[in-house]
Amino acid sequence: MIETSELRLEPMCEDDLGAVIEIERQSFSEPWSVGLFRHELRLPFSRCLVARGDNRAVVGYVCWWLVGDEVHLLNLAVHPQYRRRGIGRALLEVVLESARQAGARLVTLEVHHDNEAAQGLYSAHGFVQTGLRRNYYAPGRHAVVMTRYFPRVEKREASPARRAT
Ligand SMILES: CC(C)(COP(=O)(O)OP(=O)(O)OC[C@H]1O[C@@H](n2cnc3c(N)ncnc32)[C@H](O)[C@@H]1OP(=O)(O)O)[C@@H](O)C(=O)NCCC(=O)NCCS
Fold this sequence. Notes:
The chain is of the alpha+beta class. It has four helices and eight strands. The chain has a domain at 2-107: Gcn5-related N-acetyltransferase (GNAT) (Aminopeptidase). The longest helix is centred in the middle third of the chain and has 15 residues, at 87-101. The relative contact order is 0.13.
């Protein structure tokens, strides 16, 4: 669990799904179903977190997969009344930190080509456009693929000959 003065980030559980679905419906034209969230909660390589406000109400959530050395960010949304308060950033930063700790090579995602808010959030966190999937959501509704790469940390053995004396 991650805690700040106003926000707690905790694993999503079955009891959260009612609130999550409300946010989902207000956030996307093709919202995930409850069944889809339940499926994610059972997958061993899937992680879902909720952000709770002061009264413990769910104000946002994020779901991602860690598969091999890649992280796929599947879903991220913040309740419309709580946007522009840094909650989306806090949720994304947890995903990035989790990817770093797992030694992932990259984090990738699809975002609607018109979604300036989300693209702004991702760009601000080092994501770059790496593809375009035409008609991905529906005819005329394309997905921009965005990826954040992590530099490989080379572990070099210090050569005795070059070791400082
Ligand atoms: C995208 C979303 C998750 C952002 O959440 P948020 O809590 O409002 O974002 P934050 O307050 O943490 O903003 C962080 C940064 O994102 C960018 N951003 C957020 N909203 C923005 C907007 N409406 N327009 C432009 N940039 C925006 C900015 O760079 C912002 O930094 P700043 O406030 O210092 O300018 C939220 O708008 C949302 O739930 N949208 C609907 C669902 C969605 O599109 N999810 C993404 C699917 S890929």
